[in-house]
Amino acid sequence: MRDASVVVARDADGTVAVLTAEFPQHGGAYVFLPGGRREGDETPEECARRELREEAGVTAEEWRPLGSYAITLDSPARIHLFLAECLTLGPRQLTPSEADFKLMWWPMADAVQAATGGRFLLQGGPLALLLAQQLTAA
Question: pLDDT tens across 76-98, in order?
Fold first, then answer.
């Protein structure tokens, strides 16, 4: 299993990039943040930058690490969480498997509510949102 990165992309108004897609094998539509597995010899931040650009069409000037956590107890793979700010919007570069990803911009509070309400499929997004919320509230 390869390491992965997940990004909370927060704009100047405090809204965050959120993706949705149908996951029939898990029973319906879920919310998630831009992110994915590392490719080649990418660093965790390089992976985060690539995934944000591909899935959301966003580049960022400011990057802050939010932590690195084990994906499972049975694997040395880690998930690296980032907060990206000072955003520039551009074209999305979706792969065929990502073609149905819908991009939306939600207030941070709404994204956190979706996370605490169980609307996220994977664990990295909710944790990243809660850490980013705590960091940006200070």
Answer: 999 999 999 999 999 999 989 89
